[in-house]
Structures are given as structure tokens and as C-alpha cells.
């Protein structure tokens, strides 16, 4: 499971970085979204990867069998904030498309 | 600190939050009401900040208070902490807010929707970032501040601003993701996000986990350096700051200082001592010097005044970063003084530029956007103009321009000189340690500081001659008293800072002394007493409350 998770994070980060370096605004926003998925998974991963583990303290239960609840709280916040700011960026992107007539990030096409 | 005073700590966050939310209920047409709410909120904020500042200043060890949100004990819940440094930043932010808001009230606040709400939320994010004692909460307040700044940057619209805003948002979204990576790497290695708890635990972390922690801290550092505008992470800054409307650029002058505040806080609290001591100081030192050089070249090369001011922001950031990299207490306290002085100066300069450029018809592309935004605002604006057109406008503008030039280049008699003198004397003069030889890097900073001052002087003189002496064809700008007063107030503040330089420097030195001994901070946060809970810990359990 660790391998799958780390491969997933790695591939998404790689694709995300490649995409945000592209000249089209749509590519940039998809790149940022991929990066934020990768980061959200990364936050999960730092809490230690466990499956079927509860984040609840109980008397007499060994603490190593439980999952760390803090990354869950962090990732929720990160998702909400990431979603909101990405939505905002989308609006700006559309405004820029309307004002400049192109979807190039610099607002004009590269000279041929 | 007890009773109601304790709740003052959270007031700088709650006041703008409530005011900003309240403003959303009113229609854009109710301008006077909205302006009133905004002004009252800013005045209340300034009053709270100043009273917190006084409490912090009178506190015996400079330590005023820890506020436990939800009454959870410190390493588990979120804490807000006021010490000398955060009190200073709060005062600076709230003092800066009043003139920029008043300036905006003259006409700019009608150029787009929800200016006042966004302004209040920006203040909330700033204050929260200065107050919080928790890394993840810092992320949240950073995002609040940034989300508001995205809206403010594009206030007034126009393709120039939207384009600059798009770059700004893309850079900051990427930075926010780095912030999360850094924070979670730190959590993964140290198991805590509370800054004080982190400072305690960092001593116990060994081997690979320490490597992970330092990597996390490094990634986090990159985020703050992007905000502060260190070369080569600063190419977004001149475009964004010069495209923003004048009052927005004015309040943005403090936003680049947030990154510097966090770097100062964390480098002295967490990485002040122990095995990881001095982590990344070289990056700050050389990066800061590169930033000064880059900013200086930019200042010399700038045609438009807005870009000149933006590059001055970079020079100011670079100076602060390089000086922090030296890690010398005396010099750092001079740098704090410089930070206050340069923030006020740059804000005044951004406001002034807009007034000066109003008189010029032909101009840079920035101006065209300004005109465009005006076209909309002017027609409906006529009835609410409260001031009269000032006589001798050009003379007043010219004097303010000269004052800004003197402040930016660090010439006597204003506070820019005092600040640079304090830093230089800490590095090479009587303030320096006379036994130890002066490091080569200190000489480099001295040279760069003086050269950047010279460059500022040259370009300000050039711009001043072009604007005030040579422009025959330019009409005299119509300037309201309400727009001139904020600029004069900001310059008067730097004058006050010059006159009161002694006590101010004393405060800065005390601040740095407290920061260099983080034990008091850590103790106060970890042992903060919960309200209404009898602590069994005995006499040493006294926290800040």
C-alpha cells in the first residue's frame, strides 16, 4: 500500500508540475488541482499509513494500532481552502480570457 | 493580564471578521454606511493594537499573553500569542490601514464591488498571521489574507490587473501547496504543529526524522521567501504591486513583511539553538544580498513610478533578509526599525504616485488602466466628493515626493536615515563587537545598502525632475484633501519615528532580546493556564493569562 500511495503522489506531483509550467491557463489550473490532490495524499501519508484503524482513544487499546487523527483534520482544511482558491482562480482565468481574448498565461500569444 | 483584557488578544481577528461579514449585508449603493463601518472597525483595531502594544511594552519580560482558543491546553489546541514582536506588527498593520482606507474612501472604493469587506478580511488574515502560535493556523490565516488580496489586487478591474492577478494567484496557489508540504513534513517528523512545542521537541529529534524536519522547514522557508520577495522568487511582485490600485498597493506594503515576520519568529524560536541552529541563514544572507542588487537595478531601470515603488519593496525586503541572515542581535533590532520605517514610506509612496500621475496625460500603460478605471468612477462620484481641490497642489505633492525620496534613500533627517544608521553601526561601527573582525559578508551588505540608497536617490531625483519641473504639458492634478491627508499622515509618522528614535530603538532591542531567549515564550505557551480550571502544577504553572 505504501508503494501505491507513494507512486500515486509522485505521478500526480510530476504531472502537476509539468502542467503548471505550460503556457495555457487551463493546463495551469489542472496542474494546480493535481498538485493539490498529491499534497492532500501526502498529508495523509505523514500520519502513517494504516488501514482499518480508528482514530479514537480507548482504554486498554494499544496506541500503535490507532491512526493519527490530526492529519485528517489538516487534510479537511486543506481540501476546503484548496477548493475555494482554485474556484477563485477559475473565475480570474475566465475573466482574463474574456479581457484578453486568449487563454495564454501572459494574455497574448507568443510571437511567431 | 486578567478578565476582559485577556480577550483583547483575539479582538484583532474578531473585529475585522465581524465588520467584514456585516458589510456584506449592505448594498454597494449605501456607500456612506459601508465606509462608516469600515472606518469604525479600523479605528477599533488600532485602539486594540495600541493597547496590546502598551501591555506588551510594560510587561516585565516583554511577555503579555497567551489565548487558548476553546480553552484547550496549549500543544493540543490552537493558541494566540502576543509578545513584543507580534504587538509591533499589529500596530504597524492597523496604523497603516487607516490612511490607506481613508485614501480609498475618496474615490477608489467605488471602483468595484466589496472593497470594504475584502479590506477587512485582509486585515483579519494579517492580524491572525501575526498572532497565531501554531503552524497550521498560520497557513489558514495566510490563505485568508491571500484570498482577500486576490480580490483587492483586481479591484478596479481592467485587463492589466486581471493579468497581473492571474500570475499572482498562480504563484501563491503553488506556494500554498508548498506550505502544506512543509507543514505536514514538520508534523510527520516532530509530531506537533505548535511553534513553542516544536521548539521544545526539536532537541529530541534525531537522524532521518531530523532530516525530514529540516527539509520541511526548508520548504516552508521557500513559501515565506516567495511572500517576502527574495530573488529569484520575486518576479511576480513588481507586476502585481504596480498593477494594483493605489490604496491596495499601500496596504500590500505590509504583506511582504508577513513573510519576514514569520522567518524572524521561527528562525529565532525553533532554529535559534540546538543542532539545527542557524538553519538556512546563508540562504537568507546571500539571497537577501541578491535581492538588494536585483531591486537596485530595477529601481534604476524603472520608467513608471509604480514599478519604481515595487522595486523599492524588493530593496526593503532584501535588506531585511540579508540582515536577518547575519544573525547579529544589534543589527537585527536596527532592521526591525527599518521595517517599520520602510513599510510606512512605501505605503506613502504608493498613495502619492497615484496623485502625481493623475496630472500626466501621456504615460505608461499603468496609467492607461488607471484612467480607464477612473472613467467609470468619476461620473457617479461627483456628488460624494467632500473635500475641495487644494491650491498649491503641486507644491504639496512635491514636498511629499521629496520626503519619500529622502526616506527611501536613507538620507537625514527622516527615519530612513536612522534605520540605516542603526544597521550600519551594528555591523561596522561602535555597535559592532570590537574584538571580532568584521565579516566579509557584513562589508558586502554595507556596500549594497549604501549603493541601493544611492540608486533610490538617483531615480527619485530623476522622476521628481521629470514630474514636477519638466512637465509643462501636464495639467495640475485635482487632488482632494482627503487624499492628501493620508500621505501626509504617513510621512508625519516617519517624522514621529525619527523624533522618538531613542525609545523606538529601545523597544526594538528589547524585542530582539526576548526573541533570542525563547525560553520565556515556550514556558508561557506550554504552561498557559486554562480559564476556570484549577491547575495542579503549582507555582511554576503561571502562564501569560
TrEMBL record, chain A:
Pfam families: Oxidored_q2. The chain crosses the membrane at residues 6-21, 28-49, 69-96. The keyword Transmembrane helix applies. The keyword Coiled coil does not apply. It is found in: Cell membrane. It is a multi-pass membrane protein. Keywords: Cell membrane, Membrane, Transmembrane, Transmembrane helix. InterPro entries: CPA3_antiporter_subunitC, NUOK/Mnh_C1-like. GO terms for cellular component: plasma membrane. Belongs to the CPA3 antiporters (TC 2.A.63) subunit C family. This is Multisubunit potassium/proton antiporter PhaC subunit. It comes from Shinella granuli.
TrEMBL record, chain B:
It is found in: Cell membrane; Membrane. Belongs to the CPA3 antiporters (TC 2.A.63) subunit D family. It is a multi-pass membrane protein. The chain crosses the membrane at residues 6-26, 33-56, 76-106, 118-148, 168-190, 211-231, 251-271, 283-302, 308-326, 335-353, 394-419, 440-460, 480-499. One of its GO terms (cellular component) is plasma membrane. Keywords: Cell membrane, Membrane, Transmembrane, Transmembrane helix. This is Multisubunit potassium/proton antiporter PhaD subunit. Residues 133-430 form the NADH:quinone oxidoreductase/Mrp antiporter transmembrane domain. Pfam families: Proton_antipo_M. The lineage of its organism: Bacteria, Pseudomonadati, Pseudomonadota, Alphaproteobacteria, Hyphomicrobiales. It comes from Shinella granuli.
